[in-house]
Amino acid sequence: MPVISAPHAFNESQLYVDLRSIFGRALYLKCEGFNFAGSIKLKAAVEMVENAERDGLLTPDSIMVESSSGNLGVALSVIAASKGYRFLCVTDSRCNLSTRLLIEALGSEVHIISDLDANGGFLGARIEYVRGLCASDQRYVWLSQYTNPGNWQAHYRRTAPEIARQFPRLDVLFVGAGTTGTLMGCARYFREWHRPVRIVAVDSVGSVIFGGKPGRRMIPGLGMSMRPPLLDESYVDEVLQVEEADTIRACHRLARSGFLFGGSTGTIVSGAMDWMARNEDRDITAVAIAPDLGERYLDTIYQTNWLQDLYGDQVLGPDEVAGPRGSEPAPRTTGPNS
Ligand SMILES: Cc1ncc(COP(=O)(O)O)c(C=O)c1O
Question: What keyword terms does UniProt attach to this protein (predicted)?
Answer without folding.
Answer: Pyridoxal phosphate, Transferase
